[in-house]
TrEMBL record:
Keyword Metal-binding part of the UniProt annotation: no
Name the record gives this protein: Probable transcriptional regulatory protein GKZ89_10420
CC annotations in GO: cytosol
Species whose genome carries this gene: Metabacillus mangrovi
InterPro entries: Integrase-like_N, TACO1_YebC-like_2nd/3rd_dom, TACO1_YebC_N, Transcrip_reg_TACO1-like, Transcrip_reg_TACO1-like_dom3, Transcrip_reg_TACO1_YeeN, YebC-like
Keyword vocabulary terms for this entry: Cytoplasm, DNA-binding, Transcription, Transcription regulation
Pfam family, one: TACO1_YebC_N
Biological process terms in GO annotation: regulation of DNA-templated transcription
Annotated family: Belongs to the TACO1 family. YeeN subfamily.
GO molecular function: DNA binding
Domain of life of the organism encoding this protein: Bacteria
NCBIfam families (UniProt xref): PRK00110.1, PRK12378.1, YebC/PmpR family DNA-binding transcriptional regulator
Amino acid sequence: MGRKWNNIKEKKAAKDKNTSRIYAKFGREIYVVAKQGEPDPELNQSLKFVLERAKTYNVPKHIIDRAIEKAKGGGEENYDALRYEGFGPNGSMVIVDALTNNVNRTASEVRAAFGKNGGNMGVSGSVAYMFDSTAVIGLEGKSSDEILEILMEADVDARDIIEEEDSVIVYAEPDQFHAMQEAFKDAGITEFSVAELSMLAQSDVELPEDAQAQFEKMIDALEDLEDVQQVYHNVEL
């Protein structure tokens, strides 16, 4: 896949000087998932997944606990999960996932973030077909051969296993996510540098320098929106 997953994550973290923004997004997602099902991660696989992902971003325990307690208390806030698709400079493609309690506001803000930065929103399905839903897990301290052996012994299929600097990144079908985690934990691996269900582009594009700067400005504008949870794209960073 060649996505250089850790590099992407490090750039995002370095850019995100206000970590409270990341924590707020996780707090909202944890609340929504806990409210939709059981507030116990052992009984709610969706919640368990979000908490695993939050762990890789070092989300403080009090943020997690507060969101779960709010869900237990029957919080009155209701959020809709929405997906927007659009295009950036030079035909680059973008997917935006949001959780919102005001659909009109979010649609307007996302449209403006695209439009003010050389992009435009597309209709549903105009971009998503060029992306694959993928489970991504990153580990450190193991070789790709060791990881492959662990997965084979657990009868877990992986799409790809790539060594990236000091990490091994495993890509698999989404329904293999929990099986992968359990296989690694059974092998004594409990810390992950990445644990995501992501949308990965089937092929990446490179932009000329001027278009790259404009594209990154557009992505920043989208990620800055309060209601936006995730932004995926097909541009090589």
